[in-house]
Amino acid sequence: MPTHEFLAWITEYGYAGIYFLLVLGVVGLPIPDETLLTLTGYLVFKGTLHIVPGFACAFLGTVSGITISYWIGRIGGARFLHRFGERLHIRAESIDRVHAWFKRWGHWSLTIGYFVPGIRHVIAIVAGSSGLEYRTFALFAYSGALLWAGVFISAGYYLGERWQAFPQAMTNTALWVLAAALSGGLIFWAIRTFRRGKGR
After folding, report:
1. I need a surface site. Which of 19, 74, 141, 179 has the fewest CB within 10 A?
2. pTM, full prediction
3. Phi and psi (nearest 5°) for 46?
């Protein structure tokens, strides 16, 4: 959705437009959420919006969207695995391992996953499907929503007229960091596997 369409939505629907666009974007519709958040900060800079209701609607829209994704996974994902898990060779032990990983490390991905395009709604669905408790999900996912909205809205406010460069720059940085983390994880796994094989 181009910037002028965002402006049209916000002009017509005000803060409610920010809320509903973010709900839809976080759930997975093709809406560039980072651009919307940064634009919100810019409109606060211009005096078109006020910071408190603007931030509140952005945060609540993000929280609502991520919660919908979680319950899609919690209800639909569990039923899907129960019905088709064996046909897809997904064993109960594998599901238990995913659940254990989420309880130990995976919840942090709910916090930082917002900054990686395409990850936030997927990781919430996986969290729900794995049976992660709602209380744990809410703690980490909602903290991430607060951080994510705060970073992009603040950037839009402080960059002013240069706000449009920030979303793409952050996206590129996040993708590089993700690629580096995955590469490091693969190298670690390969070394560990090699040492285990050598020790036999």
Report:
1. 179
2. 0.74
3. -75, -15
